[in-house]
Amino acid sequence: MTMYHDYAGVIHIHSTYSDGLKKIPDIIQAANEAGCNYMILSDHDTLKGLSKEGWYNNTILLVGEEITIGEDEGHYLAMGFESEIAPHNRPQETIDEVKKQGGIGFIAHPYNKSYFDDFNITSVKWNDWNVIGFNGIEIWNYSHDWIDNFTPLNFLIGLSWPDNFIDGPLSKTLKKWDELLRYQKIIGIGSVDAHGYFYSYKKMFETLHTHLLLEKTLTFQSAFFKKDKSLVYEALKKGNCYLSYDYLANAAGFMYSAKNMQKEVIMGDELNIRTGVVLTISTPEPALLKVIKDGQIIAEKNNTKLLVKKINEPGAYRAEVYLKAFRGFNLKYRPWIFSNPIYIY
Ligand SMILES: [Zn+2]
Ligand SMILES: [Zn+2]
After folding, report:
1. In the chain, what are the domains?
2. Average pLDDT, stretch 13-34?
């Protein structure tokens, strides 16, 4: 099998260009210290940081925009384009504009936790699912996961032990992802949505990463910034990536691949079923491994680093991994890795 290089980074970050606490140099330093290979800044309705793009030690800084839809009817997390896109337009117009400029777009925090959903207290959720042409959705938004568990009584716990408030992707979001995957390719990403308030950028950058799998290596050199930038965006666009809650354990080394008689591919890729396909999940730590298709678990194995499953029908097959770890005082299987699907046709 082709060798892939695993680069972990953070997506969806706010600076003082919108409602974040710190300026770009401080934030990029935090990303350096947290060991992130890339960081995608996305301030609300502005592309101001774009001129700051580049390599900063071992972190490549890329700049996108979190575009407000209508009067706050959703947020579209877009990147890989050069001229700022105006907010407050219809969702389809916004998606089309990103596409026209050759960018990539993700529906940000599509849902809230049910309690907040009912009262619409915290976050903006996505309202229009009739849209087409977006690249993907945020499967797991770390800040929303954290904040949505706050009540007036528990906020000190939440600030002191944020991990106690982390649940993983919302089941509604995963359900929607599986629904969408029946008809099209939809990339799943993990995002931190970091603002720096009450939770330092550095600490948050050590939590939820989106790992990119590249066939080529990044150069880490300013002279080749443009080439490296396109490699990062290419991997995101193809879905050659997985998200993982690395606070529990570093997921680097995780692989999800599929093989037929002719070739072997990885997450985000397509493969022909004709001669039969074998899916393989491998993890760096023993865990609970699952293969999901159409919202159903079609294979599951406990306390293992390897799951192999032969399949006979087309569809989008994705992998989930749960790691036995403490959440507060409870030892249980916690959401750890969510892989992009392999598309079998
Ligand atoms: Zn948002
Ligand atoms: Zn945001």
Report:
1. 5-247 (3.20.20.140), 252-345 (2.60.40.10)
2. 98
